[in-house]
Amino acid sequence: MTDRKNRRLLPILLLTLFGIAVLSVQVFFRWRADAIDDALTGSDPADDVARLRDLAERLAWYRPDDTDLVFRRAELADRAGDAASAAAILSAVNDSDPQASRARYLEGLVHRNAYRLDDAERAFRASAKIDPKMVEAHRNLIGLLGVEHRGADQAEALQAWIRTGFGVIEPLRLMGQSVVVIPPGTLDKTTDEGTILERALEAQPQSRHVRPALARFYRNRGESAAASKLLDDRLKDQPDDIAARIEKLATLVESGEDDAAQTFAATIHESASEIAEFWLYLGDLKRNRKLWDEAADCYRKASSIDPRNPETYYRMAECLRSSGQKDESAQYLKKHADLRRLAEAAAAVDANRPTGSAILEAARLCADLGRTFEARAWVNEALRLDRDNAEARALLTRIEAENQAP
Question: How many CA atoms lie within 13 A of 176 on its CB side?
């Protein structure tokens, strides 16, 4: 009888002992984690970074899902000069995590500061996609595209930012410049885009964006030989790199190598025919040879692909005037002047304290230029300030009517 009772009690006793053991382990783990946390949070920020990293990594073993600890670990890795580990720690944050957008943004900063611009771009785009309200991700992406002189990509990114409805006056002001821009604050006072691109080339030599941009920087600084060498090296490995080929054409034209430029242009005509800058540089070549009508035709093609660039209209007007077509030249000079007026009006809008009158001036100029997307966005900002603004509502009615006209 007693043996039977003992046999019934034995499983209960074992389960109880197992529960006590599990609880003891949990209590120990919690105590151990709290002890490491206290040591980490109580440390002086000036303490040895290696020691702090060790504490953070040990704590992560106990708290693998602590996102705040992830940020702390990444910060310490970055402080230690281990950008690769910092980026890897941040990239491990799942997209479904409430702080995923912040993690991607910080990952972008780590890559950017390590001059890994391709990786930074990917991270900034991911951050903005997860949370469109992450204005800093948009801002840093725009700056990066400006440094790499990627006009079409920058315009597309600015439009995407405007569509979010958050902080849209800033991208509208930049779009109003109608050219590739490097926003204020992107570069510090002692660094130019050339320095960034040179370091980026060292960090990611296979990037398809860095070499053409750096060559352009050299060309604009009058160092055509350095630009040509950079592009020739790229085209040996990647002969179909269209951005590098167009920049090579620009370098030949600017160096006065007209015959070589003409031959080179013929080799890329088909693959570059939908890119505005190809026609712009080909127009420059024709203009150098005083082939005014041919140059004007090239500039027309450039403006049909990218109607935003004021310089294209100015060069076209010069060619038309030289060929005796003064009336048509005057039309394009006016277009150039209107785009410059828009740039001034957009820059005059204070992003922190905008006024309805300044906003509507930019909106009217955009509407007059047929830039409906921007005009509508400017008007919406005016209505955000004053829902009863009769001038804004009248302009919006005009924009919608013109947009629906056959």
Answer: 29
Answer yes or no: are the C-beta atoms of 264 and 250 closer than 8 Å: no
Quickly list DSSP for 338-402: HHHHHHHHHHHS-SSS--HHHHHHHHHHHHHTT-HHHHHHHHHHHHHH-TT-HHHHHHHHHHHHH
Predicted TM-score (pTM) of this structure: 0.88
φ/ψ (deg, to 5) at 166: -115, 120
Contact 145, 229 (CB under 8 A): no
Give the pLDDT score at 31.
Answer: 46
CA 102 vs. chain centroid, Å, equals: 16
pLDDT at 28: 40
Q: Which residues of the chain have pLDDT under 50?
A: 22-23, 25-29, 31
Q: What is the rounded distance in angstroms from the CA atom of residue 171 to the CA atom of residue 231?
A: 32
Write the pLDDT tens digit of every residue in 87-144: 999 999 999 999 999 999 999 999 999 999 999 999 999 999 999 999 999 999 999 9
Q: Per the structure block, which two tokens stand in for 353?
A: 């304290």
d(CA 158, CA 141): 9
pLDDT of residue 66: 80
Contact status, residue 148 vs residue 313, Cβ threshold 8 Å: no
Rounded-to-integer distance, Cα 129 and Cα 369, Å: 31
Structure tokens at 304: 């049909």
